Structures are given as C-alpha cells and as structure tokens.
C-alpha cells in the first residue's frame, strides 16, 4: 500500500506539472544491458577518447549473440509501462538502426569520429532516462535463481539516480525472461517512483547540458574580441543565461582566449521553438546559439556528443 501511495503521488506531481507546462510530454525511456553485463559476456568495444582508451558496451553484438537479451530488456520495459502507460519506451534496436544510418551519412560527408558508438545510440534514442540492467542466472542443483540490478540514469549526464537490486525465488525454470520478470516486479513500484521523481526534478530545475565552445585556427575572433557592444565571451555567457534556468551551472566554467568550457548548464525541458511550445534538447540550444552568433557576424557550427555534450566551433 505504501509503495502504491508513493507511486501515485509521483504520478500526480508529474501530471500536474505537465498540465502547467502545456505540451509537456512524459519521459522517454530506453532499457539497455549494463556495461558490467556486457563485460562479463565479452560484448564490448574499445574507444579512443582523446588519447584515452575506454571500454564501452557493444549493444548490437550483445543483442545478436544473446538470444534472450532483447526479450529480457522488453520485459523490464513492459513492467514499467504496466505501471505507467504514459511513459514512452524507446526500443534499443530502433536506436541502434538509427545510429547506424546516421553514421553512414556522416561517413559519406567526412564526419569526425569523436563520438563513441554507445553515445551515438543514446543520442539517436532521444531518451530522457536510460535504464541499465545487470542480471545473472545462478544454478544451485536442479534450481535456478536470478539476481539483478536496475540503474536509472540521466541520458544526458549518465548520472545514476534510482538503483534497485534483488534476488528472485528458486525455480526449476532456467528461462531468464520469466525469472527476471517475477523478481523485478517486486521492486518496480519503488524504482518507478524514483524515476518519476527524478524526471519531475528536471521539470523544475532543468536538464544539465555540457558546453564546449572553441575558436578554430581560421577564426578571425577570439573570446576577448568585441562582437557588437560586448566581447564574444560575454555574448555567449548572456545567451546561455537567457536560455537556462536562472543561469544555473554558468559558474562552473573553465575559460581561455580560445575556449569556454561549461561543466553543465541547466536548460528548460520545454521552450518556444519556431513559435511553438516544444520539448527541448541540447541540439535545440546548440542551433539557437549558432544562429545567435551568426546574427552577430560570427560564423559557427555545432556537434552533439551523446545527448548532453555540445561542441561549438567558431570558424
């Protein structure tokens, strides 16, 4: 009863806030295998991130070589929508296919390789929340049990906010789909309440987006150049303040003559875009900033890494 009350309270709050923000849409959620699961089963890739080798999950290989994995992820998604049918589930296979098409187009246009495969998949999912699943099937004599960990993470920052774990009851069935559904169902109300509470926090505080603005070798201006009444640095800072939630995050900045690097600026989830109230992402802010700079005679372009990292290049 207590769990049901918490879940209902969270849903009431998010619905109330959604009404107040007019066209606010519910959270988009994608369920993926955790990196721990991928490492344990050999489903990983190596990625060179500015000279540092990182191990990242190979979602496509995991889904093609583990026949039960997609069904397991779908069961977790079903448990979520059984309790809140308004939540939009993004299928990981759809996100992978979109990322592959995007990569093919980028390669044809000499695109760079600064974005990792998993970042590209998350960017193409356009999810608000990523649910990462780790599970193990444990055999004890003729019986099986499943242990699991569910981690809710912010799709923009990868920040964990709703970890839950559990162990299923012994069963003679070795089907991980059935065992995981039964085990995870016990904690799903609490997990969903945490997830909706986090999303509700984003409705009021905004979502965090990292910005890195650089001048290229061909640029005729730097951060201290006058652009109209103010310097380029001041113009960018004022723009981000006007397009953030009360300027939150602007104080966490590193700067030099040729760059500005913001750890995370909190942008509203909704904004007026082309005269319509819409859900807003990092790419919308990036495009607005490029348009703003160009209106001040500064040529620029942007690239998004994942969902929450914006790179602006001043040419």
User: Regions with pLDDT < 50 over 5+ consecutive residues?
Assistant: 1-23
Give the biggest beta sheet.
Answer: 5 strands, mixed
SS elements, strand count: 16
Radius of gyration: 22 Å
Physical arrangement of strands within the biggest beta sheet: 4-1-5-6-7
Total helices: the number is 10
Distance between the termini: 59 Å
- Portion of residues in beta strands equals 25-35%
Structural class: alpha+beta
Q: What is the averaged pLDDT score?
A: 89
General shape: elongated
Indicate the percent of residues in helices: 40-55%
Number of domains: 2
Give helix and strand order, one letter per element, not per position. HEHEEHHEHHEEEHHEEEHEEEEHEE
């Amino acid at each position: 009863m207590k769990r049901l009350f918490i879940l209902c309270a969270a849903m009431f709050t998010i619905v109330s806030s959604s009404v107040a923000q007019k066209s606010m849409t519910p959270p988009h959620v994608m369920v993926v295998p955790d990196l721990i699961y991928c490492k344990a089963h050999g489903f990983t890739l190596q990625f060179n991130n500015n000279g540092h080798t990182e191990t990242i999950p190979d979602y496509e290989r995991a889904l093609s070589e583990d026949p039960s994995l997609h069904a397991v992820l779908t069961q977790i998604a079903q448990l979520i929508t059984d309790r809140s049918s308004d939540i939009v589930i993004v299928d990981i296979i759809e996100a992978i296919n979109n990322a592959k098409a995007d990569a093919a187009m980028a390669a044809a246009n000499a695109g760079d390789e600064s974005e990792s495969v998993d970042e590209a998949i998350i960017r193409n999912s356009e999810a608000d929340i990523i649910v990462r699943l780790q599970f193990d099937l444990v055999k004890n004599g003729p019986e099986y049990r499943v242990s699991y960990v569910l981690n809710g993470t912010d799709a923009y920052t990868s920040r964990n906010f709703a970890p839950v774990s559990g162990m299923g009851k012994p069963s003679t069935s070795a089907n991980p789909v059935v065992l995981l559904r039964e085990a995870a169902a016990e904690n799903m109300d609490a997990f969903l309440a945490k997830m909706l509470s986090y999303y509700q926090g984003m409705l009021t505080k905004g979502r965090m987006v990292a910005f890195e603005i650089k001048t290229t070798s061909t640029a005729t201006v730097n951060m201290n150049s006058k652009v109209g009444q103010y310097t380029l640095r001041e113009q960018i800072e004022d723009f981000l303040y006007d397009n953030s939630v009360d300027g939150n995050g602007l104080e966490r900045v590193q700067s030099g003559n040729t760059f500005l690097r913001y750890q995370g600026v909190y942008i509203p989830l909704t904004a007026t875009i082309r005269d319509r109230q819409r859900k807003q992402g990092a790419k919308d802010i990036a495009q607005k900033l490029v348009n703003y700079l160009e209106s001040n005679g500064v040529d620029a372009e942007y690239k998004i890494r994942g969902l929450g990292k914006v790179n602006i290049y001043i040419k």
